[in-house]
Amino acid sequence: MTFTLKWLLPYWKKSWKRMTAIVTLGLLSAGLQATTPIIVKNIVNGLNQNINWEYIKLNVFYMLSLGILSYTVGILAQRNRAYMNFKIEYQIRQNLFAHILKLDHSLYYKHTVGDILTRLIDDISEKISWFACSGVFRFIQACLTIIAVISAMLYLNITLSLWCLAPMPIIVFFTIKLGKKLSKKYSQLQDSISEIYDFLETSFSAIRLIKANSKENSQKDFFATKAQEQREKEIMTGRLQIIFSYFFHYSGFFSVFLVYIAGGLMVINGSIDLGDLVAFQFFSSMIIFPLMDVSQFFITGNRAEASIKRVNEIFLIKPLLINSKKQIKLSNIEKLEFISLSFDTNTKKRILDNISFKSIRGGKLSIVGKIGSGKSTILKLILRLMEYTQGEYLVNGINVRDIDTASLRERIAYVPQEPSIFSATILENITLFSKNFDESELQKAIKVSQLEYDLSRLPNGIKTQVGNRGFSISGGQKQRICLARALLKNPDFLIIDDATNAMDALTEENFWNDFNSSYSNCGSIIVTHRTKTLEKSDEILVLEQGKAIERGNHKSLIAGETLYKKIYEKSRLEE
Amino acid sequence: MDDYDLDKKEKIDYKSSFRLIYSLLKPYKKNLYTAFFYLILSTGTSLLIPLLAKYAIDEGIKKKNLKYLLIIMSAYLINTLFFLLMNYLSSMKLIETGQDLILGLKKKLYDHLLNLDIDYYSKNPVGKIMARIQSDTSALYELFTQTVVSIFKDILLFIAIFVIMFYSNAKLAKILLPIVIFIAIIVKIFIDKSSSIFVSVRKIISEISGFISERLNSISTIQTFNKEKQEEETLDKFNIKKFNAALRGEFYSIIFFMTIIMFDPISKALIFAYGGSNVIAGTLSIGALIMFILYVGQLFEPIFMFSEHISIIQKSFSAGHRINNILSTKPRIVNVENPVYLDSFSKSIKFENVHMKYQEDTDWIIRNLSFEIPKGKAIAVAGKTGGGKTTITNILLRFNDYQKGNVYIDGIELKKTNIKSIRKLIGLVQQDIYLFPGTVAENLKLMDKNIDDSRLDYAIKTLELEYFYKKHPLNKKITEKGNNLSQGEKQIISLTRSMVLDQEILCLDEATSNIDPYTERMLTRAIKNMMKHKTVFIIAHRLSTIESADNIIFLHNGEIAEEGTHEELMAKKGHYFKYYSLQTGI
User: Which of residues 418-437 of A touch B (CB under 8 A)?
Assistant: First the structure.
C-alpha cells in the first residue's frame, strides 16, 4: 500500500491546491455530517419543553440552513474528488502512452499489444482512477472521524475504550494478511483480462481467416474458456472482498458486544453509570460508516496496487538507445556507415556479427540472405529502432550516439515489412494526419508509388476511407500507400524492408524507374530478392547467420562461385 | 471521432435495454429469488440487533441481572453471526449469478460478432469492438450484483415505512406526499439529462481503445516518422473528451444525489413547522410529532439507497444500449430459405458472366467473368494489383455477393447454398497472416480441439516440411502474433494450417508474396504437393507459383484478357508474356 500511495504522490502534488481544497471540504462535510443529526436531535428534544412559534421558526431556519450548507459543501467536495479521479486517470494514460512511444522494439518481446492495451484502458480507468483520489481521501476523512470518536471515548472511560478497541489488533493482523492475498489475486485477475484482450485482438483481426475456414465454433470455445477463467478469478476476488469487508464493516458489532458485557459488568459493579454505557453505544454506532470507507480503502487500494504495479512495470522499461549529451541535429544525411558492428539480443544471442558497409546518398545498397540472417535487424539499427552492442555506426562521419535521433529519422524514410495502415482516409494515411504538406510533393509521391491508377478506381479517390488496418484494400495497395508515405518526406535515404514484394513485377519495375528519375538524389538501402533490383544495385551485402559473407556489386559477385550467385539464380528460377 | 460528434445526443433506448437486461435475468430468476431471500433474512436479523441491545440495557443491566445480560448477549452474538452468514450467502449468490450472466452475455456478443459481415469489420477498428465485449459487459455487472435485488428491498422498505407513517398520522403523512412526487420528478429529470452523457462516455472509451490498439500495432511507423508528439496530442484530445464527459456525468450524479439528500432536512423542517403549529393549536401531541420526525429519518434511508441505484442503472443501461446496438446489427449476407447443404465437392465451380462491385456508385470491379475450375485442378489468376483478383475469393467464400451473372458449385447456384457448408469446403490462405497467442500446434489447428494430432503429422509430411517443424516444434509458444517468427516462417505455418484444416478447395490469396527465395522454394514445393491433393485457386503475381497451374486467367481491368496454360499464354506474346518477361528479365 505504501508503494501505491508513494506512486500517486506526484500526481497529488501537481494539483496541490485542489487537493488541499478536497481535504478541507472533506473535513467540513464530515463535520456537518456528524453534527447535523445531533443538532436535529437537540431541536426535537427541545419540543418537550415549552413550545411557541418563535422556537419553531428559529429551528426551521436552523434545519434549512444546515441542509443548504451540507448540500453546498457536499457537492463541492464530491465534484472536486471526481475531478481529481478523472484528472489522474487522464494523466497516467497520457504519460504511459508517451512513454511507450519512446520505447524501442524490445518492449514487444515481453508484452503483447492486447496486454499493453489492457493496462492503458482497464487498469487505469477501472481500477486505479477511483482509488487515486476518492478512495484515499475518503479514507483520510474516515480516519479523522474515527480518531475524534476514539478520543471522545478515551476521555470518557479508558477501560471501557480498551474493551471497545479490543478487536483492533485482530483486524490489523487480518488486514495485512488478507490484503496481501487480495493483491495477488487481483493481479492474477488483471493478467487473465490481458489474455482475453490479447485473444480478441487476434481473433477480430483474423476474422476473414476464421470465417473462411468456418472455425467460428472453435474460436467461441476458446473464448469461452478464457472468459470462464476470468469468471473464476472474479468470483474468487469477490469472495475475498466480502470476507475482507467483514473485518471492518461489522467489527463494530463485536465492539458493541464486548462493551455491553464489560460495561454491563461495570455498571452492575457500580464502577460506571448507565449514561456512560449508552454514550459508548452511541459512539460505536458513529464509526460504522467511516469503517466502511476504511474497508473500501483497503479493498480498492489492493486492487489499485495490483494495477499500478502493472502500469509501473511498463514505466520501468527504459529505452535501450544510448545517446551522448551532444545530440547534434542533422539537416541532411550524406553517408551512412557501419564499422564492425554487432548486435546481441538481451538473451545474449548474437544476431549480427561484425557487419561493415557504407552507403552514400544517391547510392543503392541491397541486402540479401536467408530467413533469420539478420536483414531486418540491420534496417532497424539504421533507424535506431534498436541499439547495437559493439562496433560503430557513423552518420556523415559522426558517431550516431552523438546525433539527435529525431533529426536522423527526419531524413530517413522507412517502409517496414508489414504495412501499417490506420483507419482513416488514404490521404491521411499518406500524410500521417499532417496538414502541412506540399500538394505537388504529394502528387509526385503518389505518382512514383504507382497509386494514381488505383486512386482513380476508388469511389472517393484519395479521400476514400480505409477500413480497419486496411481491410478493404489489397496487400500491394497497402505497401504502396506506405511507400508514398515514405516518399512524401522527401528523404535522403529510403529504407525498404522487403516491402515491394506484394506488388506485381510491372508495378515494381515502374516504381523503381520513377523513383530513380524523381528522387535521383535519394539513397536506398533495401532488403529484396528481386533479381532486377539486385542487378541495378551499387553494392550488395550477402548475409548468412548474422555475418556479411560477401560484398560487392552484381557483376563482381556473380562472377565467382558465391552464395550470392546461388541466391540470384534460385530467385530467377522461382520468378 | 466523427462517430462521437455525429450522434452526441444519442439517448438510451430504455425499452430495448430493459428488454435485453430482463432477457438476461430471466433464466436466473431462481438464483435471484434465493439471493433476495437471504437478503431479507439478513435485513431482518439486522433489525433485531438494536432490539437486543435495548433488552440488554433495560432488562439486564438496569435490573442488574448478570445472567440475563449474558443470555441476551449470546443471542446478540448468534444473531450477528447469522446476519453475517446470510449477508455472505446473498452476496456470493449475486456475484456468482452476475458472473454467469456476464459470461453468457460475452459469449452471446462474441457469437454475434463472429456472424457479422466482413463489412462490419472494415468499418470498426478492432480495439473498439474489443471494448464492447469487455468493458460494456462489465459495466452491467454492477447492476446485477448491487442493484437488481437490493432495489426491491429498498422499495419494500420505503412502502412499509410510509404505510406505517400513514397509519400513525395521515394528516402529517399527506404533507410528505408532494415531496415524494417531487423526488420522482427529479429522478425523471436526472435520467433524461444524463442519458446521452453516459452513452457518450461509453463511446469514447471504445474510441480510445480503438485508437490505442491501432497505434500500438504501427509503432515503428510512428517512431520513424517522428510522429510521437502528434500521436500524443491526438490521444490527448480523446483523453480530454473522456475527462469532460465522465466528469459531466459524475457531476450530474452528484447534484442529483445531494438534492435527494437535501430533502431530508426539508421534510423534517416541513413536518416540524406544520406539526409544531398543530401542537400549538392543540390538535397534535408532542410525542406524536417527535415520533413522526424520527420516522422521516428512517423513510429517507431507502430513498438514499434508491438514488444510488439510479446512477448505477443509468450507467448500465447505457452499456446495455450499446450492446443492443451490436446485437441489432444483422449480417446482410445470410442463407436463403432452405439452403442446399453441400457435404462434398465433386464436379466443378463455374463462374458465368459474373459482375460485381462493392458500392452502388462505382465501376464494376469485375465484369462479365466466366471460367471453370474442375475438381482436382489448379486455376491461377494473374494480373495487376487492384484488378479484382481478391474479389473472386470474396465471392467464392461469400464475403460479398455479386450483382449480375451467376456462380455454380457442382451445378448449384452459389447463393442458394448454405454459407457454412461452402466455407467448410473452401479454405483460404491470405497474405496477411494471423497467429494466435498459443502453441504452434494450436495455431495449425486454428484453436480447434477436435482436430486430431495425427492430422498435423500427415499435413507436415505431405507438404515435406519436416525439417521446418523440427526447428519450430509443435509445442513452441507463439508470442505477440508471431513477432518471434519471420514473415516467411509465418507463411509456412499458415500454409500448413490450410492443409491441417483439410478443405477440398483452397484459395491461396497472394499467399507467397513476402518472402526470400529459400523459403519460397520450401513453400513452392509445399504448394505443389498440395495441388496433388486438392482443387486449388491461386491468386499470385509470383509466376513460379502460377506456372504449374492447369489453367491461368489473366485479368485486366476486371475482365479476362487472356486464358490458357503457361505455355499457351507465353506463345501468345500478349499481356501475360509481357508480365512474365518483366519478372525474369528475359
Answer: 418, 420-423, 432-434
